Predict the structure.
Amino acid sequence: MSFVESCKYLFLSIFKDISMDLCKLEEYPQFSRQVAELLYSEWSKEYRLFDNIHSIDELEQLIKTYKVFIARFQKEVIGVATISDSDWGVRPDLSPWLGNVCVKPAFRKIGVGQRLVQYVLRHVDTAIYLWTYSEDLVKFYENAGFRLLQYIDKHHHYQHIYVMYFKPRLN
Ligand SMILES: CC(C)(COP(=O)(O)OP(=O)(O)OC[C@H]1O[C@@H](n2cnc3c(N)ncnc32)[C@H](O)[C@@H]1OP(=O)(O)O)[C@@H](O)C(=O)NCCC(=O)NCCS
């Protein structure tokens, strides 16, 4: 984390208050590069980067095929979440799929991720699915309204995963 980012984080974590905007990327397509950069920097840290994506350009093209939701702080994209048809076709029965939930490191642990996921869920009118590998993140998604559907011992690159679902209330 740079010095400027550290100062920003210190301020935000003390005041736990951030006047961010939540919106759909389709309303602000000029942010697609920042979205791709954020996801690329997160997923390429580990083997988690999609097998068939090798550059930020490719990722930017791919996300244009998804519904993308973003959190913005001033002109900076600080959080992303996407809805796609399924988890790379691995579980086509579980559709649509919430993925790419990611908050910029300097803005984590101050509620951005929770507010972003809750914003996404206000835009769904059918059940939606996701998976996570971390028990702590199960709690994070439960707080947003998801429930555990299935625990799988070995899935793709992961030792184990938790599949979760959210069903919107029908009025
Ligand atoms: C997961 C993530 C989106 C959460 O965003 P955030 O803005 O930090 O989350 P919030 O501040 O709204 O909520 C914080 C809570 O989420 C949970 N949490 C956050 N990051 C976590 C992580 N890396 N592992 C486990 N739990 C985490 C904790 O329960 C935390 O509560 P605490 O502050 O009491 O410890 C963010 O940490 C991130 O981008 N991580 C890297 C990408 C990733 O793993 N995405 C999830 C894929 S399923």
Notes: Residues 3-125 form a domain with the Aminopeptidase fold (CATH 3.40.630.30). The mean pLDDT is 87.
